[in-house]
Amino acid sequence: MNIQKEPFMDSSYLHQYARSADDSTLFDGAALTDKQRELIAKVDQYGVAWAERAFKHDREASFPIDNYKDLHEMGFLGLCVPERLGGLGADYRTYMLVASRIAYYCGSTANTFNMHNANSLWTADMVDEMELTDEQRASHERNRALHYGNMLQGKIYSQPFSEGSGAAAGKHPFGTIAKRQDGGWLINGKKIFASLSGSADYYGVLCTEDVPEPTYANTMFIAVPADAPGVSIVGDWDPLGMRGTVSRSLLFKDVFVPDTAEMMPQGVYIRAAARYPHMFMTLTPCYIGLAQAAYDFSVAYLRGEVEGVNVKRRMYPTKQVGIAQMYIKLQQAWALFHRVTSEFKAHPSRGERMRAYACQHTIMEYCAEIASAAVRVCGGQAMLKTFPLERMFRDSRCGALMLPWTSEICIDRLGHGLLYNEGERD
Ligand SMILES: Cc1cc2nc3c(=O)[nH]c(=O)nc-3n(C[C@H](O)[C@H](O)[C@H](O)COP(=O)(O)OP(=O)(O)OC[C@H]3O[C@@H](n4cnc5c(N)ncnc54)[C@H](O)[C@@H]3O)c2cc1C
């Protein structure tokens, strides 16, 4: 046997690189709390009705307003409002877990619920932990008490930031402008894909303060009342999937809002975004819940347990292989989801940030792959509109398109971020 003799390759680089192995090895998973289990159980009480309504909302491309009445009754419009301000006080991971179960029953409800909760999750503890002036803290306390009060009374908020430019991807300032006026702001601009258009009571708009040579740092987060003069909804809504989100375009023409419309003090949004990057993956629960639903439908279908199907198909080896492959992807996605949602914190490490991109990419792509496999594995009858699977198949394709972390952008950032340390360039 020809065994290589010294000198072997100098492997001392492993001293340094073992740190990246640490990053993958040394992880303590967070156990679910009683509160998280209770909130998920509450969703289960209502969810079947949402799954049944989903057929109609998908067919009509109409907003599932009755589900929001339920969410209000459940206290869930205040899910991420701190307990001291009357809400259920869900933190980031709790929100993510609960939202995944909502999506299990209705994708459009979970997709839009994300937009509603962005207005509370972003503005609660995360802002409290940031450095603010006394004046900023006082005005924020006053403003959010007002908005959280609205939510607790059943008002629905949305979060339109997309404009069809590079702004939503963080490339340049938002084109929607907030101009300072006595006692408030004058808003002008256009938002596309504004989920909940026509159903939200407030549009939580990301816009740019009207200053000379504005940058992304001049971003403002302002809640515009849907009935304010100058707000209009334009364009139609007849998309492939997530049809119940009703994401039409919004126009703002000289819309005056008072100072209390500020959801965050000036300049804080951009600091918060840099400090808490995991906030940009709050749509992952929607798509992992959907993937789980597509998988579970397939198991029930192959076992002959779905109403309207009386032939079992589980005995065919190809079906067994198909379901096993779907399950493997689903478990990979859940494993990343649990890990990454447990790692939420201010200023995560580079490894944690990279893992968040990997998580977003995995869930958005696997959701579409699992739903697509489900159609193939179940077969022709399963894709009739009497079953939810064909809707899940269409809904599942939308996750990868969500800015600012589309699947492509995640790959871009991973590719660069894994090979370059901070400040390095070639
Ligand atoms: C069902 C649904 C609901 C939605 N709801 C909302 C909502 O409530 N609020 C909201 O603000 N938006 C919402 N969106 C919009 C979504 O977040 C995106 O803004 C939208 O899908 C982008 O479409 P676009 O064609 O303008 O993308 P473009 O900006 O043209 O991008 C097209 C693709 O190019 C790639 N790309 C874009 N910029 C970059 C870059 N800088 N670097 C590398 N690659 C890039 C991305 O992969 C992207 O998918 C929703 C979208 C859908 C489908």
UniProtKB/TrEMBL annotation:
Domain Acyl-CoA oxidase/dehydrogenase middle: 176-255
Ranges of residues in domain Acyl-CoA dehydrogenase/oxidase N-terminal: 33-118
Name by which UniProt lists this protein: Alkylation response protein AidB-like acyl-CoA dehydrogenase
Entry keywords, A to Z: Flavoprotein, Oxidoreductase
InterPro entries: Acyl-CoA_DH_C, Acyl-CoA_Oxase/DH_mid-dom, Acyl-CoA_Oxase/DH_mid-dom_sf, AcylCo_DH-like_C, AcylCoA_DH/ox_N, AcylCoA_DH/ox_N_sf, AcylCoA_DH/oxidase_NM_dom_sf
Name of a matching Pfam family: Acyl-CoA_dh_M
Domain of life: Bacteria
CDD domains, per the entry: ACAD
Acyl-CoA dehydrogenase C-terminal domain mapped to chain residues: 286-398
GO molecular function, one term: flavin adenine dinucleotide binding
Origin species: Pusillimonas noertemannii
